[in-house]
Amino acid sequence: MFALADCNNFFASCERVFRPDLEGKPVIVLSNNDGCAVARSNEAKALGIKMGDPLFKIKDIIEQHHVAVFSSNYALYGDMSRRVQEVLRDWAPAVEQYSIDESFLDLRGAMIPDLDGWAKDLSRTCRKMTGIPLSIGVAPTKTLAKIASKLCKKYPKLQGGCYMHRPQDIEKVLRKFPVEDVWGIGRRSVKKLSQMGVATAWDFTQLREYEVRKGFALPGWRTWKELRGEPCIDFENLIEPRQTICVSRSFAKEITDPAELCSQVATFAEAAVTKLRRQGSLLMEMIPFAMTNRFHENEPQTFASRLTVFPEATDDHAVIIVAAVSAVRAFFNECYGYKKAGVLFTRLVRKDGYTRSLFRDAEEDARQARLSEAIDSVTAVYGPGALRFGVQGDGQIRMARERQSPHYTTLWKDIPKVTIR
Ligand SMILES: [Mg+2]
Question: Is 185 inside any structural domain?
Fold first, then answer.
C-alpha cells in the first residue's frame, strides 16, 4: 500500500498557525510581487476566489468579506514543510517528498493492522505537532492514493484519512472522478480522451490495453495500470541531488542602476550557493542573466546572459559571487530597465570524490573553505543575509511583499511572543 499525505491549502494554513484569530476566516496568499492568489483557505474558495486570480480583480471581494491577504513567505512555508516531513518520517518506513506540501509514503511491508485508523491518527498527530491539516489517502497505488487524499478534502467526516482498497469502493469513486483530475493526465490527453468518450477515471480504466498503448505515451499507460490497481510508478526513496539550481526573481520596479542589479544578482548567487553546498555539490558552469519587462512592448527589450566557466569546480561563496557580479557588469546596458534577473547553475559535480588540480595552493583553499563554512554557520543561526558580501548591499531583494507575515520559525527577532497573565 501507498499513502499520499497532502497539506490542505498549505500556504494559507501556514499563515494561520501563527494567527489563530484567522481560523474559520477567508485567507489568501499572493505570488511573488503580490501578483495573484496562489493559495486560498476553504472560506476564500467559497467566496469564489480562484487560483491565479490577480489581486486587482478580487479587490472588491477582499474588502467586502475582510479577506486576510498575505505576501508569500517562503522561509516560513519551507520550514513548516520540514516540520511536517519530520512527523511523516516517524510514521512510515519510507517517505518521498513530492512537492513542498505533498509526500508519498511507502507502506509496503509495514505491519499496520488498521490503515484507515492509522491515516486518521497521523492526520490528527500532524495537526497537533505542526498546526498543519493533512489529507491522507491510502491505496494500492500512488495514483489511487492521490485520489483517496482528494476525498478527504471533499468529505470532512473522513477526518483527514481515507483507506481505499476494496475493488467495489474504488469503482464507486472512479465512476464519479473526472478523468482530467487524475494525477498524470495532461491537458493534451484530456482532449483526446473526450473524443474517445472518456469522461471519468472509470471510463479510462475500461479502455482496452492496446487502445491505451496506441493512443498515449508510456506515462498514460502507466496511469491506466495504476488506476486498475497495479503499482508501476517507482517509489523514489533517495532524493537525488539536483542537476541544476536556479534562483531568480522579478522585481517590483525595473532596475536601471548597474550597482543595484549587481547587488541583486549577488544575493541570488549567495542563495544558490547555499543550495549547492547543502546538497554537497561543486559548481563548474553558471549563467547569470537579466531581462526586461516583456509586457512593456513599447520599450526596448533584451535578455542578457553570460556563461561563466570555472577553471576549477567550486562551492566557494566568494569565488561564485565575484564571478556572478563580473558577468552582470559585462552584460549590463544602461538602455534597458531590468525587470527580472537570476543565476542558473548549469553544471554540477559531486563534491566527494572530486580531485583538485595539483597546482592549487592548498593553504589558500583551506582558508577560503573556512570562510565559506563560517558563512554557512552564521546563516544557519541568523538567517540568510545576516552575514553578506559588500557587493550584496542591504541584501534585500527588490520585490513587493507589503503584506508578508513575520518569519516566525526562522528568524530570532520574529519569534512570536506569548504573554501569560
Ligand atoms: Mg496541498
Answer: yes
Question: Which cell goes with 349?
Answer: 559535480
Task: Provide the pairing of β-strand 245-255 with 338-350.
Answer: antiparallel
pLDDT band, very low/low/confident/very high, at 90 (cuts 50, 70, 90): very high
pLDDT, residue 383, reads: 77
Q: How remote is the CA of residue 101 from the centroid of ligand 1, in Å?
A: 5
Ligand 1 centroid to Cα of residue 333, in Å, is 42
CATH label of the domain that carries residue 18: 3.40.1170.60
Instruction: Give the closest residue to 174 by CA, choosing from 186, 184, 164, 160.
Output: 164
| Residues 39-63: tens digit of each pLDDT | 999 999 999 999 999 999 999 999 9
Examine residue 232 and state whether it is found in any structural domain, yes or no. Answer: no
How far does the centroid of ligand 1 lie from the alpha carbon of residue 328, in Å? 38
Q: What separation in Å is there between the alpha carbon of 149 and the centre of ligand 1?
A: 10
How far does residue 226's CA lie from ligand 1's centre (Å)?
A: 21
* 148 alpha carbon – ligand 1 mean position (Å): 13
Confirm whether 195 is domain-assigned: yes
| Same domain? 263 vs 222 | no
CA of 307 relative to ligand 1 center, distance in Å: 37
Residue 64 DSSP SS3: helix
Distance 305 CA to ligand 1 centre (A): 35
266 vs 186: which has the higher pLDDT = 266
Torsion of CA 53, 56, 58, 62, to 10 degrees: 130
Model confidence at 70, pLDDT cuts 50, 70, 90, reads very high
Instruction: Note the pLDDT tens digit of each residue in 290-301.
Output: 999 888 888 888
For the residues of 109-147, what is the DSSP string, one character each? T---S-HHHHHHHHHHHHHHHHS--EEEEEESSHHHHHH
How many domains would you assign to the chain?
A: 3
**Ligand 1: centre distance to CA 8 (Å):** 5
Instruction: Indicate if 371 and 261 belong to the same structural domain.
Output: yes
Task: Give yes or no: residues 329 and 382 share one domain.
Answer: yes
pLDDT for residue 240 is more than 70:
no
Sorted by sequence, the CB contacts under 8 Å of residue 268 that are 6+ apart come out as: 247, 248, 249, 324, 341, 342, 343
Cβ pair 122, 115 in contact under 8 A: no
Write out the residue range of the structural domain in which residue 253 sits: 245-392
The CATH number of whichever domain residue 193 belongs to comes to: 3.30.70.270
